[in-house]
Amino acid sequence: MMKKNHLLLLFFCTACAGSKPHGNAADLQSWVGAWRGVAIIENSQQPVTEWFLQLTVQNGRLSGRISSADGEFAQAIIKDIELTGYELKFTFSFETNRGLQATQRHVAVRQGHKLLSLFSGREGGHAFRGRWEARYEP
User: Fold this and answer.
1) What is the dihedral of CA 68, 58, 83, 135, to 10 degrees?
2) Tell me, what's the pLDDT at 53?
3) What residues are paired with 87 via a beta bridge?
4) Residue pair 109/85 in contact by the 8 Å Cβ criterion
5) Model confidence at 91: pLDDT above 50
6) Quick check: is 8 in a domain?
């Protein structure tokens, strides 16, 4: 009987130890949808380009993909998502057109149907930073 109780306890602990939700359903739904806007990388020779972020809710958590109009990254999965009120943090990684690995870390603030994201990252061994201003597209 003792073994059976330990197995049940182990089962319930693992079953309940899944990922925690980011917030209540109403807060999450206010982020869901398509966000589109121009990204500017500071001190870069690259022209400005449009980025697209698609956010959804899965199992009580935000998830999403991001892509760029210039094809630098396509449908990259966003990770390490943190949501606190009107602030969203996330990262994503991709291989650049030059064959280098790049990672970006975003800290975005939402104001109604606008999103302002300050980001930083690394491409190969070089650091960069910039901003992305997007609008919600229902």
Assistant:
1) 40
2) 98
3) 84, 109
4) no
5) yes
6) no
In a domain, 6, yes or no: no
> Which residue in 118, 115, 79, 123 sits closest to 97, CA to CA?
123
d(CA 38, CA 17): 39
Q: Which domain holds residue 70?
A: 23-137
CATH number of the domain bearing residue 77: 2.40.128.20
Quick one: three-class SS letters along the chain? Answer: CHHHHHHHHHHHHHHHCCCCCCCCHHHHHCCCEEEEEEEEECCCCCCCEEEEEEEEEECCEEEEEEEECCCCCCCEECEEEEEECCEEEEEEEEECCCCCEEEEEEEEEEECCEEEEEEEEEECCEEEEEEEEEEEEC
Cut 0.90: pTM above it: no
Asked whether residue 41 is domain-assigned, the answer is yes
Residue 89 lies in a domain: yes
